[in-house]
# Entry
Amino acid sequence: MLEKQVIGACLLDESATDKVMTSLTEEYFTYLRPVFKVMSQLYKAEKAIDIPTLSANIEFELLKDIISQVTTSAYIDNHILQLKERKHLKDLEIFTRELNEKIRNQDIKEIHNFLSAIPQMEEDAAKHKNTKDIIQDTINDVAVRMNAKDDIRGLRTGYSNLDRMICGLKDSELITLEADPNVGKSLLALNIACNIASRGERVDFFAYEMSNKQIGFRITPSLVDVNISSLSNPKKNLTKKDLNNISKFEEETLFNNLHVYSDELTANTVTEIKTKVNKTSLTHNNKPKLIIVDYLQLLESDGEEWERAGNNSHKLKKLAKRLNVPILLIVSKAKDGSIRGSGQIQFDIDQRWELIREHDSEDPIQQMVTQLKVKKNRDGGKGIIDMTYIKERLVFKES
# Structure
């Protein structure tokens, strides 16, 4: 009956659908799992979830039975919580059985390792706070920073001059990184992702333009300390030193915290991003510290072509607030310097960065000279960060 209440609420109320699809996965369902699976596919594709659409894949009599027993969606939050609690109890039952088996085997080391992975109940979204609580949180934040070594209260990018200027990437912020084609905006975003993940903080990188293989070639030179030319043409350029660096490279912290989504992406929507993030959070039992989307113009949405970018920036801003995490959004400029949907984008964003580099200059030194302009910042400074592009390692360094 509980599963029917949840599915039925989705058929009655679109807002209930959004809550269910962003809070639950098919693992929470048993009897109605096939129904939820079809609904999830429709939701990711941003299609209608109703009886006529579902009946193409689900028996009409089952759908009729569900809708006949549900009259309101008012209790959807409670029903979602009950499904989570039910799954948690099942996970604990499985965990207990496996633990008992290990105890019978008397393997102390394995028991200790196993206990560290005890299933945890998924936390609910942040509850409403009154003004007193909000102000007290602000005062507490100031007190913490007063006693800290510096005043950077957001997520560090790994670029110290940038962090001091912007005070880090703050939760719920939407930051745009824009540049002309081929300047290196995706590469800078990957540099930031690797810096943060190497500290043990989760980063979700959504690459709608590059494949997994292309991403690998972009991040490996700086991480392994090998020239890109050695990887591109190993028979000709790979040296013994390169082979030694590759053989010794081991970075479990980065491996465990940088989650790249590329080849498996299909829907190219903000809904897909939301679904992937939630699924990874459930699998790894932690939330991302930063989400990077590469890039805005490749995301799909309803509406005319000229307004899609603005629609998606608005959705990403809502997602940043919902997940309480900063989102770095890569934006491609047209040849004339304009950005489609720029009016809505400028309204939504909290920070606006522009990467400037003469990538097509005949002077190799001039190709390296880079500026990162912080053109907008609701909660911090603005200005220019001087950087250098190291072509051999595919990395940006602060000058």
Residues 1-122 form a domain with the DNAb Helicase; Chain A fold (CATH 1.10.860.10). The longest strand covers residues 369-377. The radius of gyration is 24 Å.
